[in-house]
Amino acid sequence: MSEAADSKKRTRKHYGAPRYKKQRIARELEVGMKGILITCNLNERKCTAEAYNLLNEYAENLYGPEKFSEREESGSEEDEKEDEDDAEAALKKEVTQMRESTKKGKRRFQAMDSGANNVVFIRTQNLDPDKLVHHILQDLHATKKKKTRVILRMLPVCGTCKAFPEDMEKYLDDFLEPWFKAPAQATYQIAFKARNSSHNKRDEVIKALAALVGKMNPKNKVDLTNPELTIIVEVIKSVCCVSVVRDYILFRKFNLHEVVKDDAGPNPGSKTSPAAAAAASSDTGPEPSETKGTSERAEAAGPRTEATGNGNTEGDLKNATPAE
Predict the structure, then answer these.
(1) What is the pTM of this model?
(2) DSSP for 154-178?
(3) How many whole angstroms separate alpha carbon 242 and alpha carbon 157?
(4) What confidence tens digit (pLDDT) does each residue in 227-270 have?
C-alpha cells in the first residue's frame, strides 16, 4: 500500500514540474530577441494592453494588417460562407487563429517577462522596432495627441546579447559599425541603465563603449546637447538590450507623456563632454522604481564635464573638469 502511494507521489512530481518550467522559459526576455522595452507606472497589465493597442494601430499603418499562415487561413469554401453568415463563427475562427499564432510565436507582438518591475518587453516579429517606435513618436510629437495613460517610455531593442563585459564588447563591435565605422561618422551620446544587475558598472561600460566608438572613427564626437545619434544600452539581469536611435532629445528621451507637450525653447548647455561623461542625463519626467531587488543603478548622469574631446583618448578624461 505504501509502495503504491509513493509511486503516485513520484509520478505527480515527474509530470508536474517540467510543464511549469517550460512555460516560464518560453515567455522570458532572452538573448537573440528584438522588440520594444516599455516602462510604466506601477500597472504592468494595463501597460501591456495599452502597448498592444498602440503598436497594432501604428504597425497596420506601416506594414498593413497582420497576416496569418496559409494553414491558419485555409479552409473550404463552405466554411467561408458559413463564417460570413454567422458573425459568431467568424469571431471564433479569428480567436482560434490568434491563439495558434501566439503558441507558435509568430504573432507580430508578444509580451514577455522582462525580469524587472514596471518594465514590459514586447517581442516583435518581421518588423523593425526602431522604425516603428520612431514613427509613433514622430506622430505624437506632430499631433500632440495623448494616447496612453500608464506607458512612460518606449525604447526600441534592435539587438540583445549577454550582459557581461566581454560579450557586450564583442557584440557591440559589430552592431555599431553601420553608424560609426569610417567613413560613417556622427555626434553621439550614450544612455545607459542597469536593472537587477550587479556585474556592470555604469562608468566602466560608458568608457569602454565610447572608446569603441572612437576606435571605429576618431571623427565621432560626443555631444550631450543635440547629438545625431543616441546609443541606448539597457541591462536587465543577464541580458543587454541595445539600439541606436535618432531624435532622442527632440522626442524627450522617448517619453510618451513629455513628447505631446508643447515644445520649450532651446536649452543652452555645454557642446561636448569626454567619453566618461557620454551618458545622457536622467529621464525627463518622473519614473517609478523598476527593479525587483536592490541592485539597480539609476540612469542619473554622473558628474558633468566641460572639456571637449572625441571620446577616444585618455587625455580628454584626465583634463576634464567636473562641473559644479
Answers:
(1) 0.69
(2) EEEE-EEEESSHHHHHHHHHHHTHH
(3) 6
(4) 999 999 999 999 999 999 999 999 999 999 999 998 654 454 44
